[in-house]
Amino acid sequence: MALQIQALGKEDISEATRLHLRAFATDPLVNAIYPGAAESPNWLQHISTSIKTGQADPSQHLMKVTLPEDGQLMGIGQWEGCSRYISSPPSTPKPPPNGANIALVTAYRKQRSEKRAAIMGDRPHYSDLALLATESTYRRQGVARTLVEWGTDRASAEGVEAYLEAGPAALPFYFEMDFHKVDTMAVAGMDPGEDRVQNEIYCLLWRPQTISSK
Ligand SMILES: CC(C)(COP(=O)(O)OP(=O)(O)OC[C@H]1O[C@@H](n2cnc3c(N)ncnc32)[C@H](O)[C@@H]1OP(=O)(O)O)[C@@H](O)C(=O)NCCC(=O)NCCS
């Protein structure tokens, strides 16, 4: 099936928010940050605002993959373009929603930005494939691949890297997309769970051939 990828429109915000909530309902990090996130109006509002803010920011690219016959959302993803790393520092992160574990969010954001600065320095790159989610009924049909390759194709054309963080569940998918693990961090203050990896976040790097071959 030929998948269509386009910019997410204002008319998609409500459905995209709900798709995201469903996809991350059992995600350990989301639930550590906001216990009961999937049922919470505050969390729903937080995701909806993130999508709206991203749409208003020219360095963000909110994309959707839809069913060709009726335009139904199959998956969404938000890339951050590399331009801001060349021209301006990253914007101030938005405050977490009421009810969030503020200490955990604050510590995690600090960990992330320190790790990212150490790994990427001031090299321009595409980043933060945030919100990436495929509706469960459409998984393993290349939806997320289409969303990821939209960004890595642009990174390749510009000769820059792509960098993101992911949890254990998404690791096999990103390896398949040619991302490589360059570091790991244990989220401070988060229960590692029975399998001892739930609090592990992996720092993943994708390199264009022009860089890989040097
Ligand atoms: C991770 C996720 C986005 C993958 O979406 P998807 O549309 O099913 O992925 P694709 O069909 O494009 O997968 C491409 C390839 O990645 C690999 N892959 C994808 N999901 C996988 C899984 N659960 N386990 C192992 N490999 C997987 C496969 O090699 C797959 O190719 P194949 O189906 O031909 O074998 C989806 O499972 C999801 O929405 N999960 C919940 C939210 C989430 O974790 N988002 C990522 C946050 S960082």
Automatic annotation (TrEMBL):
Q: Where are the transmembrane segments?
A: none
Organism of this sequence? Exophiala sideris
Which residues are in the N-acetyltransferase domain? 117-174
Q: Which PANTHER family match?
A: GNAT FAMILY ACETYLTRANSFERASE, N-ACETYLTRANSFERASE DOMAIN-CONTAINING PROTEIN
Annotated InterPro entries: Acyl_CoA_acyltransferase (IPR016181), GNAT_dom (IPR000182), Trichothecene_AcTrans (IPR052523)
Which protein is depicted? N-acetyltransferase domain-containing protein
Tell me the Gene3D superfamilies matching this sequence.
3.40.630.30
Pfam families referenced in this protein's UniProt entry, alphabetically: Acetyltransf_1
